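Entry 14. Structure prediction run on the chain below.
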Amino acid sequence: MKILVTGSAGFIGFHLCRKLLKEGHSVVALDNINDYYSEELKFDRLLQLGLSKSDVSVYNTPVNSDKYNELLFYKLNLEDRELLPEIFKAHKFDLVCNLAAQAGVRFSIDNPQAYIDSNLLGFSNILECCRQFSIKSFVYASSSSVYGLNKKIPFEAEDRVDEPISLYAATKRSNELMAYTYSHLYGIKTTGLRFFTVYGPWGRPDMAMFLFTNAIVNGEAINVFNGGNLARDFTYIDDIIEGVSAVINDQRIDENSDYRIFNIGNSKPVKLLDFIDEIENQLGKKAEKRMLPMQQGDVEQTWADSTPLMQRYAYKPGINIEEGVRNYLNWYKSYY
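Output returned:
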C-alpha cells in the first residue's frame, strides 16, 4: 500500500515508518519537527530512515530517503490548510495513519492553545483531506488519557469517557468523536488506537523512562508523585508497533460499523516504585527520591483491556518490563 504517516519524526511514528517500509509498503512521512522536545532527537530518528537534517529542515519540500527507495518525507504542519491537500492530491494514498499531535499531559495545562491548533484544527484538516480525496481507511492515535477519572479497571474501549482531566485528553476524545462523525457521514473506515504508556529505544525525553534514567545516571533526585502510589500499563514500543501494523494491514470490511476503537497496551500494570526499582537494579545505582503530591492532570492507575485487539489480530505483547528496561538502557547508554 501507499501510506501517509504523520508524526513520522516522533517516537511511535519513526518506529512505524521503519516497520512499514520493511513490510514492503510505500510511505510518505510527514512531520513539523517542532521544539516541544529535542529537535536533535527527531533529526537523529529521521537519520535512521536515511533522511538528513539539512534536507528535512526545508518546509514543504519532498525529500527522498538515501536508505529506503519507498520513503518520501515532507516537513509540514497539519494546520496548513492550503498545502496539506496538495500532498493528498500528489499521492494516491491507500491509507492514512495519523500519529501527529501535540503530546504531553502536563504541557497542556500551561499551553492549551498548542493542543487546540495541532490536535483539533490539524486533526480536522486531515479528516477533511481524507473525505475530499476518498481515502477509505484512516488509522489514528488516541490515548489512555481519555479514561480520565474512570474508576473501573481494567479500562475497556466501551467505557464511558466523559471526564478528561487534561486538555490533552479532551482533544484526544474529541478526535474520536470527529472520526465517528466522518465514518458515519462519509463512510471512511476509522480506527482509533488508545496507546498505554509507550516506552523503549528512541523514546521521548519528557517521559518517565528517560526522566528517571537520566536523573539516576547523573546523581540527581527523581520526582515521585502521589507518594509513589501510581501504576502504569507500560507497553514496549515493539509491541505497540506490532499492533499498529496489524491494524494497518487488515483490510477486512466490518459489516456492522466503519468506526472502531481499540486499547493497545500490555494489560499488566506495573507499580511506579517497582518500575523505578527495575531501573535502579539494572543501572546498579539507587535513586534519590523526592516524594511529591499528586500532579494536576494525572491519574492513579492505567490498565488496558486489549482483549478485542487480541481477538481480532492475535495481538499479544511479548516484552516484559525487565527486558524492556534493559533494551532501553542499552540504547540510552549508546545514544547519550
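The longest strand covers residues 137-143.
Filed with the rest of this week's runs.
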